[in-house]
């Protein structure tokens, strides 16, 4: 596979419903679509799904744009690789910046699968033809607002719901949802908002009898010792998200007993190549895994669905239908029926980019390679805080 051109498209989409986590609230998202072209004119798409602000990870839209334009595209454009799992080696010296790397790596996988004429899911080693999807619901103003949101998604067919929690928004909303929906598969995600202090630990322990599938990322990413101490006191599994950026992180977490379930995000791991390796490592260690999301547009969502078809993804994934997030997506919408998403059997990524709509929602572009004039990356100042 010889990559001859790389393009970036910065795209803004409004969210159907504002989303609040323990760290921020969002009404629209700016993601960067990566378009790679090979010497046969075939195209592969990937998505850099970084939040605008460095509150989930260190990455932002601005830093991702900088790294992609100055390091990643220059490393892959002109390269001839045997298979997409060699692509991360092309920029192997770049530390961190996994969201940007993930978009480029995923575009290379989509391009490769298109060239081979196989669906992306099979190319990655997927074995399922459907994926059980869950929804991730943000912090709401009131418990009644939250119950209405949960009800809406249960009515839409979802059987698994994840609630964002934070100190002060935990026991009450979780108990209310549990008593209204006794049978629902329920889990919570704190995005690292709790600390090693008696009140915080007591609030988390009070969730242990609410029948949760897991408590995701209670503590700061590097605070594996507190996570291990909590796990030792709970029967509910602790799930790690932000704590695991590499397979080495997972091995350390396992050795410490810091958790028992792994959220694998393509973005956080740095691509599909890395996500498949994390999946393999989790399986070996006996950690059930599921695929987390970053509110991806259709391009990144299709890759998440393909990844979720691997056999180690035994828990429901955050791969809800496009309609949960966007009124109109950059691809045909991904749909769910009864909370289940079908894995595409079409060659390549499985969705097509809507170029007409892309032209309407695109804020900025960059191109490198085959008969393009390199465009300046531009100043980054106007990318943040939007
Ligand atoms: O921690 O899983 C998270 C969204 C933004 C930042 C962090 C997280 C999330 C989600 C969204 O939970 C999951 C989805 O894409 O539906
Ligand atoms: Mg999370």
UniProtKB/TrEMBL annotation:
Gene Ontology molecular function: O-succinylbenzoate synthase activity
Keywords for the protein's UniProt record, in alphabetical order: Lyase, Magnesium, Metal-binding
EC number(s) from the headed UniProt entry: 4.2.1.113
One Pfam family per UniProt: MR_MLE_C
Entries under SMART domains matching the protein: MR_MLE (SM00922)
Cofactor(s) in the UniProt record: a divalent metal cation
Positions of the Mandelate racemase/muconate lactonizing enzyme C-terminal domain: 143-237
Keyword Lyase applies: yes
PANTHER family in the record: O-SUCCINYLBENZOATE SYNTHASE, O-SUCCINYLBENZOATE SYNTHASE-RELATED
NCBIfam families cross-referenced by the UniProt entry: menC_lowGC_arch
Protein name: o-succinylbenzoate synthase
Organism whose genome encodes this protein: Pseudonocardia parietis
